[in-house]
Amino acid sequence: MTRNTDNNLIVGLDIGTSKVCAVVGTRTADGGLEIIGIGRHPSRGLRKGVVVNIESTVASIRAAVEEAELMAGCTIESVWAGIAGSHIRGHNSQGVVAIKNQEVDEADVQRVMENGRAFALPTDQKILHVLPQEFIIDNQEGVREPIGMSGVRLEAKIHVITGAVSAVQNIIKCVRRCDLEVNDVVLEQVASSAAVLSDDERELGVCMVDIGGGTSDIAVYTQGSLRHTAVLPVGGDQITSDIAFALRTPTWAAEEIKQSYGCALTDLIQEDEEIDVPSVGGREPRKLARQTLTEIIQPRVEELFNLVQEELRRSGLEEVVASGIVLTGGSSQMEGMQELAEEIFHAPVRMGFPEGVGGLNDVVRNPMYATGVGLVEFGREHGRDPSIRDWSGSGWKTIVKRMRAWFRENF
């Protein structure tokens, strides 16, 4: 049986509030990506993207991974794990260094990136990603690839993403309890963006909203780079809770009703449509107008989209997302979501599906698999890149390497 330590096999593990999803991909001869296995299991141990029950989370991960192994015919040993939650913070920063030999090389780029990430962090936060936005060489702005260019001063604008130390450690602990190693912990909206956004959208300006069970993750791109990230503590689970409370029905029944009959816009519902609503305590099911269900759902979805709009305004990027809004994630599939979003944002809105992959393309072409496929895409692009963090606990090795590099540069 193939093992995923083989360089051609990549596994993404989306550990979400409502589901755990394992996606197995393989590199093709032409450098493409082919999806060969998927495993999905309900998630019981997370709340709003954060682990609250390790045993339940471990059981969900193990079940999803075993299903993916069976479908792909491989043994999974390491994964690219996704992380989300309201503890995530995005910071725009800048770094400046002198170019040593009047020509930018890899060492200069590393030094300016290190300089940009050197700002005060709370003790409970750690850096997850340092993503370059653009480089400036001697006041020449908009440089994407600085290596090889001449100059004396190199400046970098970067986006630094941080997360709670405890949240990261708990994700890693759960994965390792399943006898798996973590190649890297990846912010989920960064992964989803890799799967659903086109290069043209990133260049022109786009806001991606990944609506999950517990959280909604925002990523804003302009001029080809990530400019803003945010996590809102509102998702599909809040809609389910509203339905269960308003209709006095069990939570499991509310979820089924939402998936089967849910609609985010009352204008799309005919007045004579009816649905069956299970009751609690063994009572008989009731008939209810579907219009009533939509009147419960629409205010919650409007609240979510208004929060996204407020976040865009706060970031100062509302006017530059010329491509509009891309909705993805499992909770974005509800009827009427796209139409309601267009009414609120007054901008083009489309559904985001994983694109550009082969194999099980017809299966994964679903917003719920955006993060899982995106994690595989991230793994393909970064592979065993030495800049990827080592989560094995051997952080002192990295420190020693940096000290040696410093001595080589200065003596």
Automatic annotation (TrEMBL):
UniProt GO cellular component terms: cell division site; cytoplasmic side of plasma membrane
Lipid bilayer topology: Peripheral membrane protein
Alphabetized InterPro entries for the sequence: ATPase_NBD, Cell_div_FtsA, FtsA/MreB, SHS2_FtsA
Residues in SHS2 domain copies: 10-196
Location (main, coarse): membrane
Compartmental location: Cell membrane
Any one of the GO BP annotations: FtsZ-dependent cytokinesis
SMART domains: FtsA
Gene3D superfamilies: 3.30.1490.110, 3.30.420.40
UniProt keyword terms in alphabetical order: Cell cycle, Cell division, Cell membrane, Membrane
Domain of life (superkingdom): Bacteria
NCBIfam families referenced in this protein's UniProt entry, alphabetically: ftsA (TIGR01174), PRK09472.1 (NF007009)
Subunit structure: Self-interacts. Interacts with FtsZ.
Function comment: Cell division protein that is involved in the assembly of the Z ring. May serve as a membrane anchor for the Z ring.
Family note: Belongs to the FtsA/MreB family.
Name under which the protein is recorded: Cell division protein FtsA
Source species: Thiohalorhabdus denitrificans
